[in-house]
Each structure stands twice: as structure tokens, then as C-alpha cells.
Amino acid sequence: MKVILTEKITKLGNIGDTVEVKTGFARNFLLPNGKAMRWTRENVALFEAKKAELVAREVAAKKTAESHVDAVKSAKLYMIRQAGDTGQLYGSVSSRDIARMLKDVANVSVTSAQVLLGSPIKSIGAFDTQIALHPDVIVPVKIYVAQTQDEIEALVAGKVLTFGTKKVEEETTEEKPAEEAPVAEPVKSEESAE
């Protein structure tokens, strides 16, 4: 389906571009959200009449996004979640969770589609992602996910958290001397008796 874009859309085009998109994408997303108009001669003329207004609205949206950059960069995105012994979360941290946290921490409203996370976070650690406040204003952020505030502070300090192996090492170092000493002495006494 041929449409005229009424706002800049990443990977598709700028305001006023005539693009060919799939019918479902146009009917279900672009047209209902006012991001595009069907391409007809009447709509081309209508777009030309509204072009100055649409460009002004786009510039205002970009300025608003740029004013929120510092708030997003300075936001402390710390998430405390429950996890297993290996560091795997019970559940995950999704783009919706990050958008909600940005609203709470930095008072910046973004949709989950603006959080460029890729796949959900399913383990404890520090993760890099981006927030697209506007198609031209993309802010890199770091998200820290841990079980406790102490673990988050360690992650922020740059330390690597280890799970499962630390407890096993402590147990084995304590048990080995206790097990080896009694087992080693009777073996030596038996050999000397023979």
C-alpha cells in the first residue's frame, strides 16, 4: 500500500516521503495512529497544505525529546528482582518494566516501543540498552538488575557477581580438610600394622 508519512519513522522515512508498505502495517499501525495518510491525489494536496504544521510539530517533538536527554542519562535504573542460585531471574525484565521505571525515576514518559532492548533481560547483571525519545534522539542507558541493593552497588562499582560457584568453593574447602584427615590416618595406620 502506498502512503505519505506525516512524521519521521525510523527505518521507513521522513515527513512527506511516499513509501510502499505492507497493507496490514498501514491499516493496523500507520493510519490509525496518524503517522501516515493513504496516497491519493487529494491527500497529496491536503498534505502539502498541512506540511508546515506537521514539520513544526516534528521540530517541537524533537526539542521536547532533547530536553529529556539529561534526565534519562542521569536516571539510576536499578531493578531488584528475585533470582535463583545461578543468577537466573524468576521471570524477566522487559521493555515495559524499563519504561515504567523511567517514568518513576526520571519522570520521563516513554512507551515500551521506545525502549530498544531487543530481548528481555533474564539474568542478574549490568546491561546496556537505548531509549529512543525521538527517531533522531536516542539515549544510551545502563540497567542494573540484582537481588539486593548491595549487589547493585557492587555492579555499579564494576564488580562481577558470581553465583553458585562461590558457595560450592566455600563448602568444599571446609569439608575437604575434615574428610581427608580422618580418612588419611586410618590408611597409614593399617599399612604400618601389616
Unreliable stretches: 166-194
Number of helices in the DSSP assignment? 6
What is the name of the CATH architecture of the largest domain?
Roll
**Approximately how much beta-strand content do the residues carry?**
15-25%
User: How far is the first residue's CA from the last residue's CA?
Assistant: 95 Å
Report the radius of gyration as a whole number of Å: 28 Å
Helix percentage: 40-55%
Order of adjacent strands in the largest pleated sheet: 4-9-8-6
Overall form:
elongated
Give a quick precis of the structure:
This protein is an alpha+beta fold and 194 residues long. Helix content is 46%, strand content 23%.
List the helices and strands and how they pair.
Elements: E1 2-5, E2 18-20, H1 23-30, E3 36-38, H2 41-67, H3 69-74, E4 77-80, E5 88-93, H4 95-106, E6 115-116, E7 121-123, E8 125-134, E9 137-146, H5 149-156, H6 165-193
Parallel strand pairs: 4-9
Antiparallel strand pairs: 1-2, 1-3, 5-7, 6-8, 8-9
Task: Give keywords.
9 strands, 3-stranded antiparallel sheet, Ribosomal Protein L9, domain 1, disordered C terminus, elongated, 194 residues, alpha+beta, 2 domains, Ribosomal Protein L9, domain 2, 4-stranded mixed sheet, 6 helices
Commentary on this structure:
By secondary structure, this protein is an alpha+beta fold. It folds into 2 domains: about 1-65, Ribosomal Protein L9, domain 1 (3-Layer(aba) Sandwich), CATH 3.40.5; about 70-165, Ribosomal protein L9, C-terminal domain (Ribosomal Protein L9, domain 2). Helices cover about 45% and strands about 25% of the residues. It is built from 6 helices and 9 strands; from the N terminus they run ββαβααββαββββαα. It has helices spanning about 25-30, 40-65, 70-75, 95-105, 150-155, 165-194, and strands at about 1-5, 20, 35-40, 75-80, 90-95, 115, 120-125, 125-135, 135-145. It has a 4-stranded mixed β-sheet with strand order 4-9-8-6. Strand 8 (about 125-135) and strand 9 (about 135-145) form a beta hairpin. The longest helix is centred in the C-terminal third of the chain and has 29 residues, at about 165-194. Mean pLDDT is about 80; it is low at about 165-194.
